[in-house]
Amino acid sequence: MKGRVSAVFSFIFFLVMFSVQSMSLKAEESECYTGPKLNPYCELQAELNFLNTGYEMEEDDGRQVVCLEEGEFFRVKDVYFDRGLNEVAIKVKADEPAAVEVRKDSEDGTVLGTIMVNSTKGEYEVYSTDASEIMGKNVIYFVCTYGKCSIDYWKAGTDRTSADLNVINPYEIVEAESMENAGHYYEGDIEYAVLGGKRYLIAKNVDFSKGVTGFEVVTQTRFPGAEMYICLDDPDSAPIARILTRAYSFNSCIGVVSSNAHGVHDVYITSNYPIDFDSWKALPGHLLY
Prior knowledge:
mainly beta; 6-stranded antiparallel sheet; about 10% helix; about 45% strand; elongated
């Protein structure tokens, strides 16, 4: 009897520990898709960041500033460049010439621009640089590569408006026949496009601001082995999602992505066999967790 009771308690303990571990893993996964969505087109205080290399913060004339020396940087996550980028400016004070590189993804990542700062003689002044184009949600690093300086705030510049971009919202239904290279076919009241024959349907400037964990598509096909392939930005890249479509009449099915995606991308969709393709939409980054 004692052995049975012990076994029961051991089993219950295992279930509890498994549940706790599962919840922890889900929480960690969810953190990848949560956090503030920062607007870079207004002044963002330099102290609003999510990683640093031991730089000092100090109060200077009533303002909190970040003091960087050569080799130090700060990182800002979840910066949402929905209108692109062509300039980055900082309000900065320096007692000697300094250089601050603006990088993407890591402190050693792609240089978007380099801000050259002269001695400001004890005052805070605005310095800026032309910047390479980026879109959507990004992680930005400000890396001091020469001298030292104190940064009050930074701001991105763009000459675009949201209307200029004609951005597609993938979390609402996107009709297949509205995509580039789509033909127009009809079955009753349903208008659809046809996939197959090495032809890609293309949707440009698709804004995955909420991330993506899967795609829901509405299709029909006569081929049991028919599979759709969804690629981002490059039609020859590895598909982010593969979706088996086995319905003989229009029905929805879901494919899970191999990796999450953020930002604005061009979407390419093709298939190995002919598929009648009605519509699609993306599932937000948190939905399947």
